[in-house]
Design a protein that fits this description.
By secondary structure, the chain is α/β, with parallel strands linked by helices. It has one domain: Ribonuclease H-like superfamily/Ribonuclease H (Nucleotidyltransferase, domain 5, 2-Layer Sandwich). Helix content is 42%, strand content 22%. Strands 3-2-1-4-5 form a 5-stranded mixed sheet, sandwiched between helices. It is globular, with a radius of gyration of 15 Å. InterPro entries: Integrase_cat-core, RNaseH-like_sf, RNaseH_sf, Transpos_IS3, Transposase_IS3/IS150/IS904.
């Protein structure tokens, strides 16, 4: 639907969703994120020890309840089973959102976020437990990435600063 043309005129027009994994000494943690392409803000996220569709629906529901988007929101993901499955597609229909998909692993703006997260937090962390990883990722998103991380595409402003100054 959007063919990597990631430009909008305002917030909550297009969200990107994707999953990644975070290694810990106690096992693998999976992270599902939804990002608003307008401001690069992480609008919703969820973590768990299994890569299941519930993880994706939890992240989407968090984003939806926080942001309260208007009808017609485009939700762009890859074609992973968590996104193509009935649970997530039914949720999008119920919320009157439009589903858009590229081939597996392809929403590059999401991949850019995950690359940044792993470079700035994960690669040198060597998390001892899944709980430690969850806490550090929570802090990274909520106290650093959204309010403080500067983006060249936003005129070297953070996602929250960009949204605040654009309203």
């Amino acid at each position: 639907m959007i063919n990597q043309c990631f430009q909008t005129k305002g917030k909550n027009e297009i969200w990107l969703g994707n999953l990644t994994y975070i290694p810990t000494k106690a096992g693998t943690l999976y992270l599902s994120v939804f990002i608003d392409i307008y401001s690069r803000k992480i609008v919703g996220w969820a973590m768990g020890n299994r890569m299941q569709d519930q993880l994706v629906t939890d992240a989407f529901n968090q984003a939806y309840h926080r942001e309260r988007p208007k009808e017609g929101l485009i939700v762009h993901t890859d074609q992973g089973s968590q996104y193509t499955g009935a649970r997530f597609q039914d949720l999008l229909r119920k919320k009157k959102c439009k589903s858009s998909m590229n081939r597996k692993g392809n929403p590059y703006l999401m991949e850019s976020f995950y690359k940044t997260l792993k470079r700035e937090l994960v690669n040198d962390a060597h998390f001892a437990s899944i709980e430690q990883a969850q806490l550090e990722i929570f802090k990274y998103i909520e106290t650093y990435y959204n309010p403080k991380h500067l983006h060249s595409a936003l005129g070297y402003r953070s996602p929250i600063e960009f949204e605040t100054n654009s309203l």
